[in-house]
Amino acid sequence: MPDKAIFATIAILIGSISFLPYIWSALKGKVRPHVLSWSIWGLTTTIVFLAQRTAGAGVGARPVGLAALMAFLIAIIAFIKRGEIRITPTDWLFFVLALGALPLWHVTDNPLWAVLLVTAVDILGFGPTIRKAYYQPQTESVLFFSLIVLRNVFVLLALEQYSFTTALFPAAIGTMALVVTATVISQRPSGARFS
What we know:
This protein is mainly alpha-helical. It has helices at residues 4-27, 35-54, 62-80, 89-108, 111-135, 142-158, 164-187.
């Protein structure tokens, strides 16, 4: 059986490669990340990381932990650089739902319930991006979302224990990133599909 640490390392490298250009663009003011969106993604990913650790994911949880740190870093950059700070009632709903995962985990004493809730929140969070990718495909990066798909494949390969608690989130996020990628590619003119 392949060494799970190798898969985890590959997932971490792919994750770093995918996030660094976005962070650089945010620092330069070329993109304006939404401070609450990235805070929510940091929170939900942290909850999944903790749940995966509890459920025995082992080294397979490390790339998820790194993704949580990257999301919080982008949220901090968004706040400092005055990125997108308008917060809608839907943004607050997602934030409250994400926060609700921790008490749900505590009350049920089962990390799966927290993972189910935050995975649902993250999947719903892809809705606006998919809509934007359909109508404005030039505003999304095929490379970024393709790397997120690839990273999550390696996260799944790196898991030391497979269960719904450890595998659901990376499988769902990888699938949603694939949907965004396919949407962008299908909606762009043929000469600009993979840029």
